[in-house]
Amino acid sequence: MRPRLLLDECVESKSLIRRLRDAGYDLVTVTGAGLGEAPDEEIGRWAIRERRAVLTQNCDHYLALVVRFHPQLTVLGLRQGYTPRERLSESELLRCLENLESLGQDYTGTFVELHEYKW
Which stretch of DSSP H or E encloses residue 90? Predict the structure, then answer.
């Protein structure tokens, strides 16, 4: 099942939004949800309530939320490295999401490191 996404402000590029929607993803941006500049905890609560996975580069903060506060929060972490080789392009990100989806597992309440699905 394709995850319903909430794109954190750090990944809200028009190009990525267009590509995800063209690929059939149901997505809402943090800004579009009226949560611009809201604390991560508030964004996490909204994502749980709306049954959406947070796609973010803000991995450390959201990992802490999943572990300590919100066992129902699903986070798709996009760690962007310091060199071009460590960064995922938009095409690679889409491929990682498709690879993750192909496994057919329920990731509710987990932090998923998307780089692990780059094959």
Answer: helix 90-102
Distance CA 100, CA 45 (A): 23
- Collapsing DSSP states into helix, strand and coil, what is residue 3? coil
For the stretch 33-68, pLDDT in tens is 999 989 999 999 999 999 999 999 988 888 888 877
Residue 91, Cβ density class (10 Å: 0-12 exposed, 13-18 middle, ≥19 buried): exposed
Look at residues 30, 10, 27 and name the one whose alpha carbon lies nearest to residue 18. Answer: 27
Instruction: Read off φ and ψ for residue 34, nearest 5 degrees.
Output: 80, 25
Rounded distance between C-alpha atoms, residue 24 and residue 18, angstroms:
10
**In this predicted model, what pLDDT tens digit does every residue of 5-26 receive, in sequence order?**
999 999 989 999 999 999 999 9
**Residue 53, φ and ψ in degrees, nearest 5:** -90, 135
Q: Which amino acid is at 70?
A: H
